[in-house]
Amino acid sequence: MLKKRLRIPGSLGAVLGAELDLPDTHTPRAYALFSHCFTCSRNLKSFHVICEELARQGIAVLRFDFTGIGDSEGRFSQTNFATDVDDIVAVAEYMAANYAPVKLLIGHSMGGTAMLHAAARIPSCTAAVTLAAPADPGHVARHFIGKRPEVSKTGKAMITVGGNHFEIGEKFFQDLAYAEDGSTLSAFQKPLLICQSRDDELIDFTHAERIYRHAGKPTSIFSLEHADHLLKVREDASYLAHIITAWSARYL
Questions:
Q1: Which of 45, 192, 191, 21 is nearest to 95 (CA)?
Q2: DSSP output for 171-230
Q3: Rounded to whole angstroms, how far apart are CA atoms 109 and 140?
């Protein structure tokens, strides 16, 4: 397996850090794009495991950091769900121009929700996979709704996620305009695999059910029991990679 570090223009003009995992013995049979969760980076261990296993199975995978996250440039306070969607589209366009059009979209948590909204703008996409994704694009903003009065008063506020601090502004709360029931996902009309654990401590299984209800068909739900939200157990991430490889084979 080969790795390439890339710098890719993002939707807001910032340069995004990215990494491409490639098969080391042959030309990839397909290219995939992986988007990470809210405030995570592409370097979460479970993401490495999944993408490296897919590369060993012949699927090249591009992971990138959203604007203002990891080693990507830009200010996090200028981002929200809509800019994450735009970043996904920008990275897909870069891949089409410099490598090959991406066929498979994979997204974890909010990255999965954003990926579903970006898919209609990525013509090469033939299938998608969500990992522990909320049905509601405003899920995170609703979680921090208590910060809105401070933002209204001062123009900014600090939130803490996983022990790290991030500045948000009013743009962050624009995500509240999305419907909570997942109905905004009805624009996604491609084959979809929804991966969700009933033991996820952050995203309830009902989110998977709502995505299934509104997304196009064929859509399948794979329930990975006893897995945590970040897929910290290596065996869980590796198992998911094999499931993704087997499921996506007919669409790639």
A1: 21
A2: GGGGGGGS-TTSGGGGG--S-EEEEE-TT-SSS-THHHHHHHHHS-SSEEEEE-TT--TT
A3: 10
Look up residue 1 and give its two tokens.
């397996």
**How far out from the chain centre does Cα 54 lie?**
16
Query: Are 109 and 139 contacting, i.e. CB atoms less than 8 angstroms apart?
Result: no
pTM: 0.96
CATH annotation of 2-135+182-251: 3.40.50.1820
Q: pLDDT tens per residue, the chain (252 residues)? A: 899 999 999 999 999 999 999 998 789 999 999 999 999 999 999 999 999 999 999 999 999 999 999 999 999 999 999 999 999 999 999 999 999 999 999 999 999 999 999 999 999 999 999 999 999 999 999 999 999 999 999 999 999 998 889 999 999 999 999 988 888 888 898 999 999 999 999 999 999 999 999 998 899 999 988 999 999 999 999 999 999 999 999 999
What are the extents of the domains in the chain?
Answer: 2-135+182-251
DSSP assigned state of 251: G
In degrees and rounded to multiples of 5, residue 245 shows phi and psi of -60, -45
